[in-house]
């Protein structure tokens, strides 16, 4: 689903983390379709190369930078390589992330630590490193952080995941305030469930996915919305709209909403 054509994307180099699958893959394909140059980052060199081959078969251009793991040292080395090789980068889409749904009693703290490393700290490191680069050039630049409605509307069995997304949303809002008045736009994308392989790890039993399947967003629709918004002054993208409405009501009337929506919240 392509929403018109975003002419601001043409010839722009835009980093997409977590580009090998799901939303990230869709965003990369969409950027190339708009004439942009996606810079693909993920851990699977094989899947990234498959994606690059697909983009190039459709007369697109892309760059591939695989990374073994999203550790601080590996990211720093990769960033230095990109800055030296690409010279000018116009945008960053922090999409890499994963979730695991467990009750707090059953939390695996190693998994929680990795969630924070991938979902929060890696995105913060990329944004911090590229911030001076974006601010030194004339013309628009854009940082988009793919967050989650879980950052606004937490539910049972999502303590680790929701906490990581709360953190990333907080970082995004501060980054936006600190760069106000510059040529950099900062956008958070707060999504409900999306039909991707995310649930293979997050919901191993498949119960939650089965319960919410009819409400799931398509990754193609999300990708189209994100790329259409590149280099425009969007503070947030919230999908689906009714979940954002629910999160607003939750902030206003938390006790009432927890009572009314308990059966929905417990679907994990």
UniProtKB/TrEMBL annotation:
Keyword annotations of the record: Oxidoreductase
Q: EC? A: 1.-.-.-
- Pfam families annotated for this entry? adh_short (PF00106)
Classification via InterPro entries? NAD(P)-bd_dom_sf, Sc_DH/Rdtase_CS, SDR_fam
Q: Does the keyword tRNA processing apply?
A: no
Any one Gene Ontology molecular-function term assigned to this protein's record: oxidoreductase activity
- Does this entry carry the keyword Oxidoreductase? yes
Top-rank taxon, per record: Bacteria
- Name the family: Belongs to the short-chain dehydrogenases/reductases (SDR) family.
Q: What name goes with this protein?
A: SDR family NAD(P)-dependent oxidoreductase
* Species name: Oceanobacillus aidingensis
Organismal lineage: Bacteria, Bacillati, Bacillota, Bacilli, Bacillales
């Amino acid at each position: 689903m392509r929403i018109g054509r975003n002419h601001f994307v043409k010839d722009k180099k835009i980093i997409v983390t977590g580009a090998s699958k799901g939303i990230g893959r869709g965003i990369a394909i969409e950027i190339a379709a708009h004439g942009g140059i996606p810079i693909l980052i993920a851990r699977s060199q094989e899947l990234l190369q498959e994606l690059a081959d697909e983009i190039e078969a459709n007369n697109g251009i892309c760059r591939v930078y695989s990374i073994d793991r999203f550790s601080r040292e590996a990211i720093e080395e990769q960033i230095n390589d990109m800055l030296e090789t690409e010279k000018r980068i116009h945008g960053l889409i922090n999409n890499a992330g994963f979730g695991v749904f467990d009750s707090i009693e059953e939390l695996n703290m190693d998994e929680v630590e990795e969630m924070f490393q991938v979902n929060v700290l890696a995105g913060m490191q990329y944004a911090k490193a590229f911030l001076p680069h974006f601010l030194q050039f004339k013309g628009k630049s854009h940082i988009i952080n793919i967050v989650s409605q879980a950052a606004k509307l937490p539910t049972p069995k999502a303590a680790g995941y929701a906490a990581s997304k709360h953190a990333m949303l907080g970082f995004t809002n501060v980054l936006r305030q600190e760069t106000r008045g510059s040529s950099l736009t900062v956008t958070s994308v707060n999504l409900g469930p999306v039909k991707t392989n995310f649930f293979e790890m997050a919901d191993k039993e498949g119960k939650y996915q089965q319960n919410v399947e009819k409400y799931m967003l398509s990754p193609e629709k999300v990708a189209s919305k994100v790329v259409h918004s590149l280099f425009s002054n969007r503070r947030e993208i919230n999908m689906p709209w009714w979940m954002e409405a629910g999160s607003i009501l939750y902030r206003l009337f938390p006790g009432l909403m927890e009572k009314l929506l308990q059966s929905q919240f417990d679907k994990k």
